[in-house]
Amino acid sequence: MPTGVHLRDARQQLFDAAERILLREGPNALTSRAVTDEAGCAKGVLHRHFSDFDAFLTDLVLDRAAVLREQVSALHAGEATVVANLTGALGILFGPVPVAIIPLITFRDELRARLRQARPGGGMAILAEATAAISAYLAQERELGRLSATADLDALTLSLVGGGHLMFADRDLGGPEPAAIEKFVAATIYGVTR
After folding, report:
1. Which of 26, 49, 72 is the endpoint of a domain?
2. Structure confidence by residue, pLDDT tens digits, 106-122
């Protein structure tokens, strides 16, 4: 690889390269060499910005979790129907990148340990973002009266996030049909919407 290639925003270019590898080949293909080759830079560039590959992966996951948080923040209570809003949110929360990151976290012990240090309270960064986003949205809808005041938001959140994860888990299938997601959401919140 050429060593004199200037990278404008090296961290972001390395993150984008890692994302492309995750989407194209899965988490097993993600190595420091693969990332720098994909980014078109020398391997030393990665180590100039990160102490080691697990530090890179930790920052990658936290960066993508922040992007996810921004995307889901557009979910506003009171707009559309609760079912339509949750259906759209699950599509974002379990899109191709988050679904590719989850097994990366699952199978890398050091990455999980570093994420726990970076985000006290544990949990997997992507699933934690999904849980927080769904919980906050449901609370807003309950305040507006579109969900029953007695609705168990914790149970609903866990059901939606857990069930959503299962529906999207097989990334090779490209995700479930929107109608299937909508049917799942409607069944999950049945009896608590107004």
Report:
1. 49
2. 889 999 899 988 886 65
Distance CA 18, CA 15 (A): 5
For residues 88, 105, 152, 135, the Cα torsion angle rounded to the nearest 10 degrees is: -50
What H or E segment, with its residue span, contains residue 43? helix 43-49
**Residues in Cβ contact with 181 at an 8 Å cutoff, skipping those fewer than 6 apart:** 87, 90, 91, 164, 167
Domain coverage including residue 29 = 1-49
- Any idea what DSSP says for residue 145? T
Q: What share of the chain is helix, strand, coil (3-state, %, to 5)?
A: 70, 0, 30
Question: Structural domain tally of the chain?
Answer: 2
Q: Is 40 left (phi over 0), alpha (psi -120 to 50) or beta?
A: left
Judge contact between 142 and 153, C-beta under 8 A.
yes
Q: What is the CATH number of the domain that holds 104?
A: 1.10.357
Same-domain check for residues 62 and 36? no
Please tell me whether residue 96 adopts helix, strand or coil conformation: helix
Residues linked to residue 193 through DSSP beta bridges, in sequence order: 147
The tens digit of pLDDT for each residue in 2-61 reads: 444 455 689 999 999 999 999 999 899 999 999 999 999 998 999 999 999 999 999 999
pTM over 0.70: yes
Q: Tokens representing 6?
A: 């200037």
Question: For residue 109, what is the DSSP state?
Answer: H
